[in-house]
Design goal:
By secondary structure, the chain is an alpha/beta fold. Helix content is about 40%, strand content about 20%. The chain has 9 helices and 8 strands. Strands 7-6-5-4-3-2-1-8 form an 8-stranded parallel beta sheet. Bound molecules: pyridoxal-5'-phosphate.
Length: about 230
């Protein structure tokens, strides 16, 4: 199937049609991104800083680029001038650096805090207590060039649908709990980024507002090609 056909069948399958589809284009060539762009997609997700900046200069300027990988503080400066949303923020230190670099571009950079919801040890992210500690840290309210607009999480890599659902439900409950707290002005929680090719329908049923889908749009990634 073509990228365009994949996109329309994914969109047609959505449990929540208002959920934002982010096309995860990591490892994919610009030609594939342009095909999805031609089908109306404007939100693309990348997880490597170098790959993202290279694609950003050569692809249409109205693309909204989402950074979905693990961001190192020393690389924030390369994406802060243009990135639309950083999904994987997992420390106050990183927020401080994003604030500093966004200020240089006179921008306010939108971020999602990444929460560890999977069973696997390897996945990045904060636990509930670490998240609440960041929200309560007095340093946070002084950051004028970052805006925390929600939470992001990745479920376990498993066929166990109950497991996946309970992980997404945990994240949604934490999201709702945080929304009920008194938070600084630069924290306005409206987005819940959860769901990938294999679990986006479960994620939508559990309250996702944005799904990050790669393989189901572009096919299997070829990591040896580049
Ligand atoms: C690669 C990636 C995705 C997309 O995964 P698919 O299974 O190909 O849809 C989503 N989120 C993150 C954080 C990723 O790194």
């Amino acid at each position: 199937m073509s990228i365009k056909a994949n996109l329309s069948s994914i969109k047609n399958s959505f449990y929540n049609p208002a959920c934002l589809l982010i096309a995860v284009s990591k490892t994919q060539p610009s030609s594939a991104i342009l095909e999805a762009y031609g089908a109306g997609i404007r939100d693309f997700g990348e997880n490597k800083v170098q790959e993202l900046t290279a694609k950003q200069v050569e692809l249409p300027a109205d693309i909204r680029w989402h950074f979905i990988g693990h961001l190192q503080t020393n690389k924030v400066k390369y994406i802060a001038p243009f990135v639309h949303l950083i999904h994987g923020v997992d420390s106050l230190k990183l927020l401080l650096e994003i604030d500093k670099q966004a200020e240089k571009s006179s921008r306010v950079c939108s971020c999602l805090m990444q929460i560890h919801i999977a069973q696997e040890e390897t996945k990045f992210g904060l636990d509930r207590e670490e998240l609440l500690a960041i929200f309560q840290n007095p340093e946070l309210r002084h950051l004028k060039n970052v805006r925390i607009i929600g939470l992001m999480g990745m479920a376990s890599f498993t066929d166990d649908e109950h497991q996946i659902r309970s992980e997404f439900r945990f994240l949604k409950n934490l999201f709702d709990e945080c929304k009920s707290l008194q938070l600084p002005e630069n924290v306005q929680l409206s987005e819940l980024s959860m769901g990938m090719s294999g679990d986006y329908l479960i994620a939508q049923e559990e309250g996702s507002t944005m799904v990050r889908i790669g393989t189901a749009i572009f096919g299997e990634r070829n990591y040896t090609k580049q």
